[in-house]
Structure formats: C-alpha cells, structure tokens
Design goal:
This protein has 2 domains: about 180 residues, Alpha-Beta Barrel (TIM Barrel), CATH 3.20.20; about 130 residues, no CATH class. It is of the alpha+beta class and about 375 residues long. Helix 1 crosses helix 8. The two termini are about 40 Å apart. The strands form 2 sheets. Strands 1-2-3-4 form a 4-stranded mixed β-sheet, sandwiched between helices. The chain has a two-stranded antiparallel ribbon with strand order 5-6. The chain has 15 helices and 6 strands. A hairpin with a 2-residue loop joins strand 2 and strand 3.
C-alpha cells in the first residue's frame, strides 16, 4: 500500500460490509439476516451485503437494513465448475438473472456469461471482501461447533471442508492493513453501482386470457353466474346480491385473473381424476363455491366472505391465498401439470427449512464435544 494512502472512515465502513454470511449458508454462519444488519449498524457500516449461496434470507435482510438506515446489497455466492464468484444485483434485470442462475439444476460458466446483465461480479482477489460469519472472536468456538455438525466430525477433528480462518468483524485498522488502495476503491465502486430495491407494495397476479375474447372480469362474472344457477337452481336469485358484492370487491383488487387461474388449474385436475380440498378462509366466498373451487356451501354453513377478503385487508395489500390440498400420491402430478402449463420461467416450488430445536441441538452439540478436552 502506498505510504501516502490513508483509509478514510467512509472507505472503512464500506469495504467491511460486502461479504457477510447468514445462517442460510447452512451450518456455516452464526448470524441471522437481522443479526447481520444489527452487527453492521453497531460497527458504523453504511452498506451491507449477504453473500450466501442462495437468496433465502434476501427479503428479511433487505427489510431489516432499510429499517436501520443502511444500504442493502442483494448478492449471492455463485459456485461454478471454475470456482466461486460473488454476484451483486445492480438492478431489477440483474435480480431476475440471479434468480434464474440460482434456480438452475447445474450452474455452469456459460450460464453465468449468458445471464450477467444487471449483475456485478467480484472476488476476494480483486476486491476487499473479508468474510464475516460471526460477531466477535469469542464466537469462534461456536462456529467450530456448527462446522463440526456440518461435516459430521468432532470439534478437534480435522476435515477438508472445515474453515480455519477468523470470521469475526475486525477493526477498521485491520482492514486498512489487509487490503490495498486499489482493492478498496474497487469495492467502493461496486457498492455505489448497486441500486436495486424490492417492490413490496406492488401487486402482481398471473395473467389469464379468456379464449372467448372477453375480459377476465366479464369471464369470471359469466362463470360465477352460471355456477350460481347450477348450485342453487330456482333459488339462485336469492343469492345474486351476495355474488355481485363479492365480485365487486374481487374486481377492486384486480383479483379476477387469480381466481380464473385457480379455476382453470382445478378444471384440469378434475379432468385427470385428481380430487382436492379447499381449506381455510378460501372456503368462505360464494364465488369459490360457484366456480367449483370449493365444495362447501357458504350459505348453508353461514360463512362470511369478508373473512377471506375485505377492504381493510386490501388497503394493507395483505391479500389471501386460495389454499388447496391434493392427495399425497397426486401432488407430483399437479406440479407437473403446472410446470407444463406455465413453464419453469413462471412457476416455482416453495421450499421450507428444518431448524434445530432444543433437544436436537443439544444432542448434536454433545456429539461434537464428546471426547474433547476442555
């Protein structure tokens, strides 16, 4: 480093926050997305990024950073046959490309080259990107324990996948000693070019184009009215007012295409002999009953549409899902049906996470610490 170079406080704050790992780097970090932000704020960092090999913690991290007044960078560690590189989201195009890359069954260098628009790439060799996996040096032993759980080894056993460095948040003086002026400047430029934000208050529904050429609103009204007469026959007129009220509220939200998409899916399921149960508040609307989405009569059982959708809920953009249960042995058929219809660019499978509870965590920690001399 040139003798006349001085690491300014803003540079220190910037370079120390571009490579945090959260606990979504499974068993490879002690930090939750919210703890990453708390740690950054406590150390005066004005920009922070999580670089897990996935985007599982991206939304929680982004919201926490915004609330703390810190600039969040959405990023991920891309692992290709040629090595690892960090991809930072520059704009909405880049976010879409990063989601695409992380969704591939096998990530290749060619795929990264073909979907690099809107992404900025960095590596520890050319940028100041120290890894942060826990809070303080005192957490190093805890980190060693989760590494041992991950590698199925005892704490004192060596393993090629165990990391041996220090991954706490060092002091700014140490950063200045570790990195060159060029690396720090490159990191600053990278952070300054990233300007992506999630749009949480924008509603997006699946598109549905009726084959008859009418609008989705008209088509839904037609289907619901036909269903009302089919369900209630000569008493249909008694419930027309409720049906119209529900359709009006659905229209205010712009929810028609969502209802139609669900209706179409279930029509195909019926054609394949796949049964289903509609549960929760989705059984309340008369519209769902008339469309055949639900088999429960809301009139007979005195169910209330407003439990499913009301104007107060609409004002908060907290719109409900239509929850549907399929037989266990038919779920794969339904998934295949959806992907055939919409393609893997427009459909996704939602995953869940198993987390440690008290008993299981104590058991695994005990295995790691067994025969360790304290």
């Amino acid at each position: 480093m040139p003798s006349d170079f001085h690491l300014h406080q803003t540079d220190q704050q910037l370079l120390a926050g571009l490579n945090f790992k959260s606990y979504y780097s499974f068993l490879d970090s002690l930090l939750s997305p919210e703890e990453v932000v708390d740690l950054a704020k406590a150390n005066g960092l004005n920009t922070v990024a999580i670089t897990d090999p996935n985007l599982h913690g991206a939304v929680a991290f982004f919201q926490a950073a915004q609330a703390a007044g810190i600039k969040p960078l959405i990023a991920a560690d891309l692992r290709t046959p040629s090595g690892s590189t960090f991809a930072y989201v520059q704009n909405s195009t880049g976010y879409g490309n990063l989601c695409h890359l992380l969704s591939l069954e096998r990530l290749t260098d060619e795929a990264v080259r073909n979907h690099r628009e809107g992404l900025l790439f960095a590596s520890p060799a050319t940028h100041a990107l120290p890894e942060i996996r826990y809070k303080t040096p005192e957490d190093r032993r805890k980190y060693g324990i989760i590494q041992s759980i991950r590698t199925l080894t005892r704490l004192d056993e060596k393993h090629p996948e165990k990391r041996t460095g220090h991954y706490g948040l060092n002091s700014s003086r140490e950063w200045g000693d570790m990195f060159s002026a060029e690396q720090i400047a490159a990191s600053n430029r990278l952070a300054e070019q990233c300007d992506f934000s999630f749009e949480f208050n924008v509603l997006r529904f699946p598109r549905f184009v009726p084959a008859s050429g009418v609008s989705p609103k008209e088509f839904l009204h037609q289907l619901a009215t036909e269903g009302l007469h089919r369900r209630y026959r000569d008493k249909a007129s008694n419930h027309m007012a409720q049906l119209e009220e529900e359709l009006g509220i659905i229209g205010e939200v712009g929810y028609e295409e969502y209802f139609l998409a669900v209706w179409e899916l279930l029509q195909e399921c019926r054609g394949l002999g796949i049964d289903w149960i509609t549960r929760g508040s989705a059984a309340d609307p008369l519209v769902c009953y008339c469309l055949g989405i639900s088999g429960v009569c809301p009139i007979r059982f005195e169910l209330y549409f407003r439990r499913f959708l009301n104007r107060e809920r609409m004002a908060l953009n907290k719109l409900p899902d239509i929850d549907i249960d399929f037989p266990h042995d038919k779920k794969d058929d339904v998934v295949d049906l959806i992907f055939r219809r919409y393609g893997n660019q427009h459909a996704a499978i939602v995953g869940g996470f198993n987390t440690f509870r008290g008993r299981s965590s104590v058991a695994d920690i005990a295995k790691v610490l067994s025969e360790v001399r304290l």
